[in-house]
Amino acid sequence: MRKDLALFGGEKIIKKNLEKYNSIGMEESIAVQKVIDSGELSRFLGCWDDDFYGGKYVREFEKDCAEFFNVKHVVTVNSWTSGLVCAIGAIGIEPGDEIIVTPWTMCATATAILHWNAIPVFSDIEPETFNLDPKKIEQKITKRTKAILAADIFGHSCEVKKLLEIAEKYSLKLITDSAQAPGVFNNGIVTGTESHVGGYSLNYHKHIHTGEGGILVTNDDNICERMQLIRNHGEAVVESKGVKNLNNILGHNFRLGEIECAIGIQQLKKLKSLVKRRQEIAAYLNEGLKDLEGLILPKVLKGNTHAYYCYGLKLDLNKISVNREIIISALEAEGLKGLGNGYANIHLLPLFQKKIAYGNKGFPWSSDVTSNFISYSKGICPVAERMHDKEFIAFEMCLHQLNDEDIELVLKCFKKVWDNLHLLSN
Asked: Would you give the DSSP letter of residue 138?
């Protein structure tokens, strides 16, 4: 039987390359051509002028997003990394301030904090949704803590109401990074919109995209204005605009162009159907994998919907004695691509282990306004570390345009490997 597994020379199940996910169609092509024909690829001016806020398509896209996400303000930016930099600067962070952040996210979620010479403090995740665990946060709060930055990882909302309760108790701001969770809900409210400021990624492998880009959302007038200033050379604007608070108004060029916004307008129209299809695929996978012993399926907490940017699985190591890497190798040998072990824990990256960011002398950690007791040692986030090291298996649905036949092939790969787990343990 051993030879039946493709890992040992047997015939693999998926013999073709699964179709690459692509949400761009004719509508976007027509929209782009209209912008090109107009000759106006951007209308931003970095001075106080009506065009400080951008051109026709920028404003239309922001208006459409505000309606779709049911928020008062939307600010588009040229990447979600830029969006995080804007959001953190806009809440009035000071050098040496601390922001509690998840270790399980893209590195920019944490490094955007360093942009303002503030200090990321990592708090552990909970093992079901892989989001920040509210129960672990209060022990991380100090007199220097000014905000919590939570991610809605893989497409499932963080426990935002519990996080807001903590934020209110300690007079903190809550920022939510919903890069992977557009168009889903937490108890009837759009995920990413309950925090003081949140937003979504428009990077090319997200549900919808403009190549690169980001969408900031807030219901706070002051935060909105400050993000707009940081986006577009705010230091050249504040005097004429009459802005008195100059804190963090070191402006950038984080502007999203007319072409990208024209694409975004069309992409936004597709978001509901694209998310719905991911949810259908996840339901299909759930049904097909539910009886595989020791494989724990994604959990959706009551009142939530899930965008399934990633279909996150776990191994129950009390029931499975096979090393996760061997299982992934066996699945990949059957032709199933797009598997991984989740995010590398950010606190273990060389940047944080060596505390080297600006220059060679450990700034901002070496600053006299910074705590000397910030630890990034292995063991500070045991759940996140255990998930990454041993238990988590990611099926990156963002990579594939899956039809029902493809899903059946995926299920066959899992079932074949599970039928032969006893051989892999030898």
From this structure: G
Q: For the residues of 180-205, what is the DSSP string, one character each?
A: T-TT-EETTEETT-SSSEEEEE--TT
Mean pLDDT (the chain, rounded): 96
pLDDT in tens, 88-102: 999 999 999 999 999
Contacts of 371 (CB under 8 A, 6+ apart): 96, 98, 119, 142, 144
pLDDT tens digits, 154-213: 999 999 999 999 999 999 999 999 999 999 999 999 999 999 999 999 999 899 999 999
Instruction: Give the architecture-level CATH label for domain 26-267.
Output: 3-Layer(aba) Sandwich (3.40)
Q: Residue 52 gets which letter from DSSP?
A: G
Quick check: pTM over 0.70? Answer: yes
Reported as type and span, the H/E element at residue 147 is: strand 145-151
287, with CB counted inside 10 A (0-12, 13-18, 19+), is exposed
pLDDT tens string 96-155:
999 999 999 999 999 999 999 999 999 999 999 999 999 999 999 999 999 999 999 999
β-pair partners for 216: 75, 199
> Which amino acid is residue 172, in one-letter code?
L
**Can you identify the CATH homologous superfamily of domain 2-21+271-342+384-424?**
Aspartate Aminotransferase, domain 1 (3.90.1150.10)
Going from N- to C-terminal start, the domains of the chain cover 2-21+271-342+384-424, 26-267
Q: Which helix (H) or strand (E) holds 151?
A: strand 145-151
Closest Cα partner for 184 from 206, 214, 211? 206
Q: DSSP state, 381?
A: S
With b for 16 or more beta-carbon neighbours within 10 A and e for fewer, the 309-332 pattern comes to bbbbbbbeeeebebebeebbebbb
Q: Is 339 exposed, middle or buried (0-12, 13-18, 19+ CB in 10 A)?
A: middle
SS3 (DSSP) at 175? strand
Helix (H, G, I), strand (E, B) or coil at 133: coil
Token output for 382: 């045991």
307-346 residue pLDDT tens: 999 999 999 999 999 999 999 999 999 999 889 887 889 9
Q: Write the pLDDT tens digit of every residue in 50-59.
A: 999 999 999 9
The secondary structure of 294-311 as a DSSP string is: TEEPP---TTB----SSE
Q: Are 110 and 120 in contact (CB under 8 A)?
A: yes
Q: Which parts of 276-414 are beta strand (E)? A: 295-296, 311-315, 339-340, 392-395
